[in-house]
């Protein structure tokens, strides 16, 4: 009898179409593509971008992507509508969810499992950096209440956490000392190096959600201290309007040698070229468990200026950028001025260093084999020795 491939349901919420800026899209897609010969993947996502009133795709039907099947759901006040029924009616051996505090998919799914409305298959949760001190400090009252509920109802029993950095592993073990925690980086391929053409002034870019954790305000405070003439492009969705209003005030107060402007969102396909057209990617995030935007900038040959709480370390020694403890606007500004004042020949070494760092990450990664091992081990708990559904 032929071996039956295990079935894995992935709850990702923001996925194509209409969610092009989300970095996890790329790692989830790469993971599914690389393992589709071993695992059958089923993705469940929202049917429209945040804030949209109309769906961008028909929901309540499975679509074949080649490397996975996907179904889109409408999200209502209590989360993704029909999620419990979909989990109940879709045979699967493992549930993989993105985000621990996600109110649209993760929390409804865990409630459905706890109260018998969805199967008790093994669960893997990828917290996506939500357990860092910087992230937990945002909306901490709501998060604290949910954590108490998790412990009271036993939501996290027999849950495996998938983390991507040493720091995230430590944060997760501190909160859930009895759970299995697997540290496996994201599956990310190296894309072809886009062309670079120097501009008339030093160009920087911010790429990420406009929310406190991503540190746009810190970037703008640093730019106020820069002495070189620079131009700053801001790419990303506004997920916190009040925070963006504060950032607009900081933009208005910038000195004459600094221009800053929001240029909307970038599709995933447009990111490599957009990053390659900048001299520096500037995102002093308060915390990143991986940093998809950081990887994409490095892959495009663009140095990065980031905080020190990400997996991307020792950038200056590699001539790939700077990782600086935050907050430190003066140090961030000094790094920008240093790069902006370089000769083209010296700066070219930093572009080569950025690309080399991305290349070393991809070449040395065992993520594909490690995630396959994890999935196959966990799904084996839900199948018979003969490969038939238990």
Task: Describe the SSE topology.
Blueprint: E1 7-13, H1 23-35, E2 40-46, E3 63-64, E4 69-73, E5 75-76, E6 79-80, H2 83-89, E7 94-98, H3 106-114, E8 123-126, H4 133-136, H5 140-153, E9 159-163, H6 166-175, E10 180-183, E11 202-207, H7 216-223, E12 230-235, H8 241-252, E13 258-262, H9 271-276, E14 280-283, H10 292-299, E15 304-307, E16 321-324, H11 329-340, H12 344-364, H13 367-379
Parallel strand pairs: 1-2, 1-7, 2-4, 7-8, 8-9, 9-10, 11-12, 11-14, 12-13, 14-15, 15-16
Antiparallel strand pairs: 3-4, 5-6
Helix pairs in contact: 7-8, 7-11, 10-12
Question: Which tags fit this structure?
Answer:
Rossmann fold; six-stranded parallel β-sheet; 390 residues; globular; 16 strands; 18% strand; 35% helix; eight-stranded mixed β-sheet; alpha/beta
Report what the structure shows.
By secondary structure, the protein is α/β, with parallel strands linked by helices. It folds into 2 domains: 7-188 and 365-382, Glycogen Phosphorylase B (Rossmann fold), CATH 3.40.50; 202-364, Rossmann fold (3-Layer(aba) Sandwich). Helix content is 35%, strand content 18%. The chain contains 13 helices and 16 strands. The protein has helices spanning 23-35, 83-89, 106-114, 133-136, 140-153, 166-175, 216-223, 241-252, 271-276, 292-299, 329-340, 344-364, 367-379; strands at residues 7-13, 40-46, 63-64, 69-73, 75-76, 79-80, 94-98, 123-126, 159-163, 180-183, 202-207, 230-235, 258-262, 280-283, 304-307, 321-324. The strands form 3 sheets. It has an 8-stranded mixed sheet, with helices on both faces. A 6-stranded parallel sheet has the order 13-12-11-14-15-16, sandwiched between helices. A two-stranded antiparallel sheet has the order 5-6. A hairpin with a 2-residue loop joins β5 (75-76) and β6. α7 (216-223) runs parallel beside α8, α7 (216-223) packs across α11 and α10 crosses α12. It is globular, with a radius of gyration of 22 Å. The two termini are 15 Å apart. Mean pLDDT is 91; it is low at 384-390.
